[in-house]
Write a structure and sequence with these properties.
- By secondary structure, this protein is α/β, with parallel strands linked by helices.
- The chain has 2 domains: about 130 residues, 3-Layer(aba) Sandwich (Rossmann fold), CATH 3.40.50; about 130 residues, Glutamyl-tRNA Synthetase, domain 3 (Alpha-Beta Complex), CATH 3.90.800.
- It contains 10 helices and 10 strands.
- Helix 1 crosses helix 10 and helix 7 crosses helix 8.
- The longest helix is centred in the first third of the chain and has 17 residues.
- It is globular.
- It starts with a strand and ends in a 9-residue tail after the last helix.
């Protein structure tokens, strides 16, 4: 087996908080225990929300925590042509189709939810004729491209992946992937030629990532990633899902909810050791900084 490679891949659309610190420290700790290396990757496909100052803050926060990484750092915004190439491979398999539905269209027609609790796409545009698709594309209607998940599963058959837990040195356990519970996932968004699901799979393979450490909130999304890996002929890493830090009301820490940033904690006098104690010793439902 090659030398273990892991990665921490934040999005620079806000400042890092304690939840990110837990994920970063868990990744570097796992790399050390495995005798491997942790990489830093910047997942900045959301051009509108990702800012250079947030990227710089990521470097500063991680260095403050005592973490280091090999150069060069991969920026996903520099790799759009590579993701588009992967999408074209799926299109050539007749597994990618244009979707013209808005969020309100989906919410109005959905009769189920996905694992994240969002309205499950009912497959409306999968049933459009080629003539309808061409007409709407030529008209310039806003479009995103979705994976025909049912057809994809017919091509791959039963999917499994290996999960390591609760510690990174435990024996891997085989788990069955269930991508059908996500419906037809978006792989190319309206504003960019990729999506989180597609870019993360392509980059993990390109960088030779052998072990992925991620929070339990991304556990279900791994099903889509395993499906894409099989379709594109890419290796499937080992996966390890770490606990989440929760607020007083039981919600996970999030930039969108104003969770206190590492920069703020540092300004209040926190030390890297304080952060390590907070993320390492608190059980999963312990109360942490807002």
């Amino acid at each position: 087996m090659s030398k273990p490679l892991l990665r921490f891949a934040p999005s620079p659309n806000g400042y890092l908080h304690l939840g990110h610190a837990l994920s970063a420290l868990a990744t570097w700790d796992a790399a050390q225990k495995l005798g491997g290396t942790a990489l830093l990757r910047i997942e900045d496909i959301d051009i509108a929300r990702c800012k250079p100052e947030f990227t710089q803050a990521i470097f500063e926060d991680l260095a403050w925590l005592g973490l280091s990484w090999p150069e060069p750092v991969v920026y996903q915004s520099h790799r759009f042509d590579i993701y588009a190439g992967a999408a074209n491979r799926l299109r050539d398999m007749d597994l990618l189709y244009p979707c013209f539905c808005s969020r309100s269209d989906i919410a109005d027609k959905a009769n189920a939810t996905d694992p994240d609790g969002a309205p499950l796409y009912p497959g409306t545009c999968r049933h459009l004729s080629n003539a309808e698709r061409i007409e709407r594309l030529e008209r310039g209607d806003p479009v995103q491209f979705r994976l025909d998940t049912e057809a994809a599963i017919e091509r791959t058959g039963l999917l499994t992946f290996s999960v390591i837990g609760p510690t990174i040195l435990d024996r891997p356990q085989i788990r069955y992937a269930r991508p059908q519970r996500w419906g037809d996932a978006v792989l190319q968004r309206k504003d960019t030629p990729t999506s989180y699901h597609l870019s993360v799979v392509v980059d993990d393979a390109a960088q030779g990532i052998t072990h992925v450490t991620r929070g339990r909130d991304l556990e279900a999304a791994t099903d889509i990633h395993v499906l894409l890996q099989m379709l594109l002929g890419l290796p499937t890493p080992y996966y390890h899902f770490h606990r989440l830090l929760l607020t007083d009301n039981g919600e996970k820490l999030a930039k969108s909810k104003g969770s206190q940033s590492l920069r703020d904690l540092r300004a209040q006098g926190w030390t890297p050791e304080d952060v390590q104690r907070a993320v390492s010793l608190l059980p999963s439902r312990e109360k942490v900084a807002r």
